[in-house]
Amino acid sequence: MIFACKRELSQEIPYPGGITDTTGTDTTDTTGTTPPDTLVNIDSFANFELVVSEGKCANFQVQGKYVSGEYLTENETVTLQVNVITPGRWSVVSGTVNGITFSDVGIFTTTGIQTITIYGAGVPGEFGTTLVPVSVGTTSCSFHVPVSEH
Questions:
Q1: pLDDT tens-digit series, residues 67-126
Q2: Whether the Cβ atoms of residue 93 and residue 112 lie closer than 8 Å to each other
Q3: Spatial contact of 53 and 80, defined as CB atoms under 8 Å apart
Q4: For the chain, how big is the Rg over CA atoms in Å?
Q5: 3-state DSSP of the chain
Q6: Nearest Cα to 142, choosing from 32, 48, 23, 58?
Q7: Nearest CA among 76, 56, 74, 58 for reference residue 66
Q8: Is 95 left (phi over 0), alpha (psi -120 to 50) or beta?
Q9: What is the distance between the alpha carbons of residues 12 and 24, in angstroms, rounded to a whole number?
Q10: Cis omega (within 30 of 0) for bond into 36
Q11: Cβ neighbours of residue 5 under 8 Å, at least 6 residues apart?
Q12: CA angle at 32 for the pair 28 and 34, rounded to the nearest 5°
């Protein structure tokens, strides 16, 4: 007796808005951006840096409710400013402090100062202010997360 499985092929595009050109490089069209109608190679990683002011992440914003002993949800986020030098895929993962970490991935399609959102995960331990470090390339900064008592 012989058993076999039929292989299914995905028709999905690997990244939102992406198309595959004849060279096999995944790209995304940046229509409506400056410069207009350019293609960004989303197979390559972006070159970007954190915007830092006196060791702190510049203009960071903490959203959500951080309670000691309670799991974070998709509502617990931090927005950070970055300076994009070369568009492409990006990834940011903070350090884990007091039981929590922040991360996300995405695609930059333009250069210049932009805002990204990273999402919290984990369970805050001690209540009080938690200083969370984050690094991108050669830039590092930190942001404060207020954790309330359970």
A1: 999 999 999 999 999 999 999 999 999 999 999 999 999 999 999 999 999 999 999 999
A2: no
A3: no
A4: 19
A5: CCCCCCCCCCCCCCCCCEEECCCCCEEEECCCCCCCCCEEECCCECEEEECEECCEECCCEEECCCECCCCCCCCCEEEEEEEEEECEEEEEEECCECCEEEEEEEEECCCEEEEEEEEEEECCCCCEEEEEEEEECCEEEEEEEEEECC
A6: 58
A7: 76
A8: beta
A9: 15
A10: no
A11: none
A12: 90
Burial of residue 57, with CB atoms counted within 10 A of its CB: 0-12 exposed, 13-18 middle, 19 or more buried: buried
Average pLDDT over residues 46-68: 96
The answer to whether 90 touches 137, Cβ cutoff 8 Å, is no
> Mean pLDDT over residues 40-52, rounded?
88
Q: What is the spatial distance between Cα 51 and Cα 60, in angstroms, rounded to a whole number?
A: 10
Place of tokens 């919290």: 120
Q: Contact 30/24 with Cβ under 8 angstroms?
A: no
CB neighbourhood size of 118 (10 A): 22
Supply angle C-alpha 79, 29, 36, rounded to 5: 90
